[in-house]
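Reviewer 2 asked us to include a model.

Predict the structure of this chain.
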Amino acid sequence: MKRDGAKIDAISFIYKNSILILAVAECIIFQLLSQGVFLTGRNLSNLLLQGATCSVIAITMSLVIITKNSDLSAGRLLGMFGMLAAIMQVKANISGIVVVVLIYAIAIFVGYWHGFWIGKMQLPAFIVTLTTQLIFFGICQFMSSGMTIGPVSGVIDVVGSGYIPHISKNYNDTSLIIGFTAAALYLFLAVLKEKKNIAQGLIQPRWNKVLAKVLLPVLAITCVSVVVFLNRGFSYSMLVLFLFTCVVTYIVSNTKFGRYIYAIGGNKEAARMSGINVSKEIIKLYILHTVLVATAALVYVGRVGNASTAAGQGYEFTAITGCVVGGVAISGGRGTVVGAVVGTMIMAGLDNGMSLLNLHPALQYIVRGIVLLCAISLDAVASDRKAKTLHTT
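Predicted model (structure tokens):
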């Protein structure tokens, strides 16, 4: 089958639309198996709340993977930050605002530590973060003596489990206003960018493609807004996720740092020869990433209400899997922050659906592993076909 003389690659098509295909398949399967519970407003609202933590980690985990690096310590680091926050607030009676500032200060130091060994000393990220994973877990156990510390209160509790205020009594109309405003703003910025590119002569008018491209995100934002509107509304953790997604997306798309990240992921040696200080950019990346992990830790502790040594276990793998499912190439150089966040939310939906079905925990691990393997395999096959296409043209 051909169109405009070019052979349609079914695998490439599936890869490009994998997020949509997987999301639709997930909704249909779990809706049928859960007897209509999965797509109820209450469950979807809980899913968004629970998935916010790993999705915050995935924001910068995507950039780490794009540079052909990794972070296997994110889950245990989240647990350590959460434990530190709980101990400072509960045991030392430090106010929530001061705790947040201290946690971010420690996060900057830890991020520099990772960046130094990976960027400056050029040690494999896999080994460095695997080592610190053990260190962070040990510190967490040492500080807590294996005990659960809580409950947390103040700003940490509000950010983790609180919901934005509303005007009416029965529904969270504020959430609906925020959602519709965000959808309209996204559409406006997409049109504005297209008009700017046309005016500069960079592209020819292609409004049909642009509208088709922005229609799905606008529809998704609208649907999410309606779902939370009919329930408790947007939680502060959802707004934190949305805010950081927008900020990091802007940084990646409009700053030298963002361009350097993709250049390093595409070819590190070529990036170095072109004048990019690779070690400096890697250090900056890991500082940013660790600050996001600290944010996720505060959100998690606020939602759960306490800190334990089991907190964060396996979160790094959920975030990595979500990034790959969301189109971030495991080989580096390709991917988007938004794709990573959506992919991680899909993984949160997978966990939520399996829990609704009371699937045995062992089978849940198997399913997650199969999904990750399929996503990596599809990425590898699509990349290989793209390389062969470029080689033959």
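The chain has two domains: 2-162+241-392, 166-234. Residues 248 and 384 are 29 Å apart (CA to CA). We have added this to the supplementary material.
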